[in-house]
Specification:
The chain is an alpha+beta fold and about 475 residues long. It has helices at about 55-60, 120-135, 230-235, 325-330, 330-340, 345-355, 365-370, 385-395, 395-430, 440-470, 475-485, and strands spanning about 15, 20, 85-90, 95-100, 110-115, 115-120, 140-145, 150, 155, 165, 170-175, 180-185, 200, 285, 290-295, 375, 375-380. The strands form 7 sheets. A 4-stranded mixed β-sheet has the order 2-6-8-7. A 3-stranded antiparallel β-sheet has the order 5-12-11, with no helix packed on it. Strands 1-9 form a two-stranded parallel ribbon. A hairpin with a 2-residue loop joins strand 11 (about 170-175) and strand 12. The protein binds S-adenosylmethionine. S-adenosylmethionine binds next to strand 4 and strand 10. S-adenosylmethionine binds near residues 165 and 211. Pfam families: AWS, SET. One of its GO terms (cellular component) is nucleus.
């Protein structure tokens, strides 16, 4: 994403409105598992249909379309229908971006779903550490259930912008929707328009970095997610009077570098897909890379601390946004910028061990492909040489043994990597290339390890060969050169 005159928006992300499953497929609900309520549609009281008394509502389960006795009148399909409240994105002072109510919201109302990438708990931990190592201070990982998390760092809904408060007006609730658990943000009490939405991250948040809380509530816990499982497992055990749990003993970060709010204005209408970012200038780039023209007279929004959340005087403008497609949302620039900023797991993965092992589609011409690939696998493009022959040319027995041992180690590492391919072949075939993002974390870890071992073994072989050749008497090198030419 690009902004005029150096104005910066939030780091780019892909806007999605349903969870994406990275490590498993979306569950398929079996017919026998569908919970059917006993509600009946009465024309004289439509508001009673699938309301508080509905058996499914009571168990936080959404009704399944076609199975609910109330048919199209069912009101218990809010996640499925994306029955979101109207919200707007805005720039806060010191807490990055936040989300405002853009209409009156009633107590208990479903506001928005927290969407992102569904990953394992272990992967969540790993990512949190990788994000922290990469200097990303905004945390977007929340827990979904005992073994899975939702990571909205790279992909997410507008809910990813809801900030924490120790005295929040919203809360997260988990609902079962078509057999899958989903996380929704719900109003704890009535919320007036232009009020910042917030929930308590304490039991949800999984940020690696300790961030000083700026919610301003009298009961403020001091920093974010202090009671969350991630926080506790990561660093500290939560115990009253535990002196480790004090601001002084914990390295704190401000949530972002303070950018004067007067420089920025961001306005979003959650009723549309995607969002726009606006600077003082009349032009802006949407996240999907389209250039929109906006009147330059719009005043910036000034955010108040959460204590004074009502923002009646703020002038806001709704900007119509184009429906976004994932592919468009992530412009090459945005992708590049995110890749530079976040040394993410997939970044590490794809740089460390991919063999570009294309099964079907490939940008290469057939001719070029045929030259490089052999039986579907990428040929070793480095110049091979006859190690045995080279060793015989070396005068010292010790040197000979060393490079033969290196050759053996290289063979062993290569065969270990090759045998791993049998394990990952189905994923490679499904995704048409050998990206480690397409296999489970456990396999990817083995894959990275095996690739590193192979690279190390190759390096040792070449290094020792060069070392011994350069130490050998004159004449050995030309013989080797000749031998290489004849190969
Ligand atoms: C889920 S994101 C919320 C959106 C974020 N403000 C942004 O600009 O993308 C969580 C991050 O926002 C910041 N944040 C949220 N609530 C905060 C608070 N009460 N005080 C300080 N920083 C906060 C922290 O950096 C936190 O890691």
């Amino acid at each position: 994403m690009q902004y005029m005159d150096g104005f910066e928006g939030p780091p780019p992300y892909i806007h999605i409105e349903q969870n994406e499953f990275l490590f498993r497929k979306h569950k398929k609900q079996k017919e026998e598992d569908i919970a059917v309520c006993e509600c009946k549609y009465k024309p004289d009281s439509p508001a009673s249909v699938c309301g508080e008394g509905c058996l499914n509502v009571l168990t936080s389960t959404e009704c399944t379309p076609c199975y609910c006795p109330c048919g199209i009148y069912c009101r218990n399909q809010r996640f499925q229908n994306r029955a979101y409240a109207k919200t707007k994105l805005f720039k806060t002072e010191g807490r990055g971006w936040g989300l405002l109510a853009d209409e009156e919201i009633k107590a208990g109302q479903f506001i928005i779903e927290y969407c992102g990438e569904v990953i394992s708990w272990k992967e969540g931990r790993r990512r949190a550490q990788a994000y922290e190592a990469a200097g990303l201070k905004d945390a977007f990982i929340i827990s979904l259930n005992s073994h899975e998390s939702i990571d909205a760092t790279r992909k997410g809904s507008l809910a990813r912008f809801i900030n924490h408060s120790c005295q929040p007006n919203c809360e997260t609730r988990k609902w079962t929707v078509l057999g899958e658990v989903r996380v929704g943000i719900f109003a704890k009490h009535d919320i007036l328009p232009n009020t910042e939405l917030s929930y308590d991250y304490n039991f949800e948040w999984y940020g690696g970095v300790k961030v000083r809380c700026l919610c301003g509530a009298p009961c403020c816990a001091g920093f974010l997610g202090a009671k969350s499982r991630g926080f506790q497992e990561d660093t500290y055990l939560w115990e009253d009077d535990d002196e480790r749990y004090s601001v002084e003993n914990i390295p704190l970060y401000d949530s972002e570098e303070d950018v004067p709010a007067s420089k920025l204005l961001r306005i979003t209408d959650s009723s549309t897909d995607g969002f726009n970012l606006l600077g003082k200038q009349s032009q802006l780039m949407t996240i999907n890379g389209n250039l929109d023209i906006i009147p330059s007279s719009i005043e910036p929004i000034f955010a108040q601390p959460l204590q004074s959340v009502l923002m009646e005087d703020a002038r806001m403008v709704d900007i119509k946004t184009e429906p976004s497609e994932d592919a468009k949302m992530y412009s090459p620039d945005a992708d590049q910028s995110l890749a530079n900023k976040n040394v993410t797991v997939s970044h590490i993965r794809s740089n460390s061990a991919c063999r570009n092992y294309y099964i079907k589609s490939s940008p290469l011409s057939n001719k070029k492909r045929a030259k490089i690939y052999s039986g579907g696998r990428l040929k070793n493009l480095t110049q091979e040489f006859d190690v045995k022959l080279v060793s015989q040319l070396l005068p010292s027995e010790e040197a000979q043994e060393e490079i033969l041992a290196c050759e053996e180690a290289k063979k062993a590492a290569t065969s270990q990597l090759d045998s791993l391919y049998d394990e990952i072949r189905p994923a490679i075939e499904e995704h048409e290339k050998d990206s480690q993002d397409s296999v489970s974390t456990a396999v990817a870890e083995k894959w990275i390890g095996a690739t590193c071992s192979k690279l190390k073994a190759e390096f040792n072989l070449y290094f020792n060969t060069i070392k011994h050749i350069s130490a050998a008497p004159k004449g050995v090198a030309p013989v080797l050169a000749l031998q290489n030419e004849t190969n």
